[in-house]
Design goal:
Keywords: Coiled coil. By secondary structure, the chain is mainly α. The protein has one domain (9-188). It has 4 helices and no strands. α1 runs antiparallel to α2 (43-157) and α3 packs across α4.
Length: 193
């Protein structure tokens, strides 16, 4: 057998309204009957109908007071529930914001560490570029010296005629450094960071 549950405030309000409506209907009927008895000059009946109407008035006032009290109770209960739900949503939002904040703090720290790690790689890479350019310039100087030596040795060995034009300088690296803004900047800058 199922356990009987207590009626809710809404159920009690519905029941109180029905009782008040029934008492109000009975009072209106008693007052209409009383008015009819008075207009028909049935005073003995009118006296009994007045007593009947008076007996209904007090329970009707009590029923109407119960309806008013229950309506206030239902409203107060709903407001209380809404306040609790709002407080719960706000607490959940704060908890989520706290989790999001902590995740953002951690993400920021990881990103800063990665940034610093990458920056730490920049200077050695830059210096490696400078060394490569310097090595190319040195190799270009050696190539030019070898070309001039080849020309002189060729004239001395008789392979080249003494009026043979002097060799053109080997300057492809120097020319690139002069015409390429980035290479020129790397060549002139000793330290990047």
């Amino acid at each position: 057998m199922a356990a009987k549950t207590a009626p809710s405030l809404d159920d009690k309000l519905i029941q109180a309204r029905l009782e008040a409506q029934e008492l109000n209907r009975r009072l209106h009927k008693a007052e209409a009957d009383l008015e009819a008895a008075v207009s028909e000059k049935r005073y003995a009946d009118a006296e009994e109908l007045k007593k009947a109407a008076d007996e209904i008035r007090e329970p009707l006032l009590i029923a109407e007071a119960q309806v008013t009290a229950l309506e206030a109770g239902v409203q107060a209960f709903r407001e209380h529930q809404e306040a609790e739900e709002r407080a719960l949503r706000e607490r959940q939002a704060r908890e989520k914001a706290t989790v999001d904040y902590q995740a953002a703090v951690e993400a920021e720290q990881v990103a800063i560490e990665q940034m610093q790690s990458h920056l730490a790689e920049v200077e050695p890479a830059f210096q490696a570029l400078r060394r490569a350019l310097s090595g190319a310039m040195e190799a270009e100087g050696r190539a030019h010296y070898a070309r001039v030596s080849k020309h002189a040795a060729g004239i001395a060995a008789g392979t080249l005629h003494p009026d043979h034009p002097r060799p053109t300088p080997v300057n492809s690296v120097a020319a690139r450094i002069q015409t390429n803004h980035l290479l020129s900047l790397i060549w002139r800058t000793e330290r990047l960071l």
